[in-house]
Design a protein that fits this description.
The structure is a homodimer.
Chain A (H helix, E strand, L loop, with lengths): L10 H12 L4 E4 L4 E4 L9 E8 L16 E7 L5 H11 L5 E6 L2 H16 L4 E6 L20 H13 L4 H13 L1 E7 L19 E4 L10 E4 L3 H13 L9 E8 L5 H17 L3 E8 L9 E8 L2 H8 L10
Parallel strand pairs in A: 3-4, 3-5, 5-6, 10-11
Antiparallel strand pairs in A: 1-2, 2-4, 7-8, 7-12, 8-9, 10-12
Helix pairs in contact in A: 2-3, 4-5, 6-7
Organism (chains A, B): Tessaracoccus lapidicaptus
GO molecular function (chains A, B): ATP binding; glycerone kinase activity
Protein name (chains A, B): Dihydroxyacetone kinase subunit DhaK
């Protein structure tokens, strides 16, 4: 294993420390609970949004804490749910008169930690709700999940509820918005290589030099099928068909189209996939009117990509277009 | 080779097509000359900025065309200089009464193409200057270079001259600013793996499972030394020492600190490196007051990173802080 690490056990804390050092005016880092919190939180005039999940999916979620997005991120170790008491502590740090929303990708471990944390926080008098995200069409149940998995589509739920919270909407309304966005968002991914968790020190699974895993999970969980590599045009078909037919998306729809890199794939290849997907959708009368190309929810150093569609209406579009401020500086 | 590609020969055009489809309001793509141009160019009230280089370094430079950055990018094929007539055509497309600045990383092939293009454009009556960027401290001369190479530090030159152009500065003043930023910017990189150019279909060089290449070039050119992998703390020393001692940067300096991924390294590891570099600089009295962590200038799918320092003064800081608009959407 060749990575930029020191002690594998310190991987997540060292990353979070770097993140805080790079953003001293906007973020605080609490090493005791592994929390990244907005420096200006809590704000009693808005609902606070917390996302928790295992680490290894960066920039999700620690690097999207900021105005109009998350108030706090509560990461676990790599691919592991955060401890329940860390989630409760996160809720304490950002508790607000308007309430706290916990966003959780639908994995059994995360679900247990966050449901328990919601109960404990509520018992302390914190007004709190939880919303589960399950946008992955690849598999019905999986290695770590009952029901669908939550993957890169969580980005759109976060953006929408973050914007709604910033606009002062109340907790019930924000839950409605989050559920609405989740209901029109679908994702499927493909892996070209396995990822290597620092503590494991070797690839999480075997995959041949000429093979791809279609429907891969963001923790390296198996997808729908292992098959031979095919050109990008065919890979886009393998991802788009199950997505489009799922809701379904249909002619006349306006969509946001995301091509998300899984950590080891260069942005050049992601734009190549974007162009193919855009044209294939347009040919079906489905119009991508908002584009997202880059890394949003990764799987460590895995070479691979996922495609996400979001069916847009005026309400969702306005929330996605709202201003936000996150640590990642592109210019 | 497993990549998201169709025909390797079509890799660059398909990427550019995807980029244009994702940004229909702000960018235009000319497949004949491989140009990406701002949709609102030319603007006779500002100097136009063009960067050319080989492809394979994305987001540099085709994905940083936009207000306050580049007016046009003129990419060659992967790791190859663009043809001279493509550069001349780029100058024609964005020619302005205030002039055109060609930005070029210092590689022999690019230098020849752009110097010839400058002559030809000038002969057509286009007011044009060329500025070479050479921020890489790793090697004095290299496989493709007489003198130092231009690498990720070009980002800061582009940002500064882009902001100055947007503010209406004249061509001489913009050249002065570009030269000033280049003179206070230094970079060094390290590779953990080789990159695989699509047309070659296999890694560009051999590197052992336990080896790193210190001082790597962005086209896979050899650096200063091949050595055994060492932990991140030591890797940061290997990169920072030659950078800091070069200008030198010294106690009391405020700097911008960039940790740039080379394409295959996840942002988690880049933030880990950032934290280490930030603290090591601070211990020497050199204060990083502006942070850049992510992918700015890559080498296809290479796992690796570079560190860049920019010595800041009020003029440079103001130019780096100026607003800009580029295709990459992070929220």
């Amino acid at each position: 294993m060749k990575k930029f690490i020191n002690d594998p056990k310190a991987f997540v804390p060292e990353m979070l420390k770097g993140l805080a050092l790079a953003n001293p005016d906007t973020l605080t880092y609490d090493p005791k609970y592994n929390l990244i919190v907005r420096a200006d939180a809590p704000n009693n005039d808005k609902v606070s949004i917390i996302q928790g999940s295992g680490s290894g999916h960066e920039p999700a979620h620690v690097m999207i804490v900021g105005k109009g997005m998350l108030d706090a991120a509560c990461p676990g170790d790599v691919f592991a749910a955060p401890p329940t008491d860390f989630v409760v502590e996160a809720a304490r740090r950002v508790k607000s008169d308007k309430g706290v929303l916990l966003l959780v990708n639908n994995y059994t471990g995360d679900k247990m930690a966050f449901e328990m944390a919601e109960e404990l926080a509520a018992a302390e008098g914190i007004k709190v709700r939880t919303l589960f995200i399950d946008d992955d069409v690849a598999v019905k149940d999986s290695l770590y999940t009952i029901g669908r998995r939550g993957v890169a589509g969580n980005f759109f739920v976060i953006k929408a509820v973050g914007a709604a919270a910033e606009a002062g909407k109340d907790l019930d309304e924000i839950v409605r918005i989050g559920e609405k966005v989740n209901a029109v968002t679908r994702t499927m991914g493909v892996a070209l290589t396995a990822c290597t968790p620092p503590a494991k020190g070797e690839p999480l699974f075997e995959i041949g030099d000429d093979e791809i895993e279609v429907g891969i999970g963001i923790h390296g969980e198996p997808g729908r099928a292992r098959q031979k590599w095919v050109p990008a045009n065919e890979i886009v078909d393998l991802l788009l068909e199950p997505i489009v037919s799922d809701i379904p998306y249909s002619s006349g729809d306006d969509v946001a189209l995301m091509v998300n890199g899984l950590g080891g794939t260069p942005i050049s290849e992601l734009y190549l996939l974007y162009g193919i997907a855009h044209e294939k959708l347009a040919a079906q009368g489905i119009t991508p009117t908002r584009s997202y190309v880059g890394e949003y929810c990764t799987s460590l150093d895995m070479a691979g990509a996922s495609i996400t569609l979001v069916k847009l209406d005026d309400e969702i579009r306005e929330l996605l277009e709202a201003p936000a401020e996150i640590p990642i500086r592109t210019f």
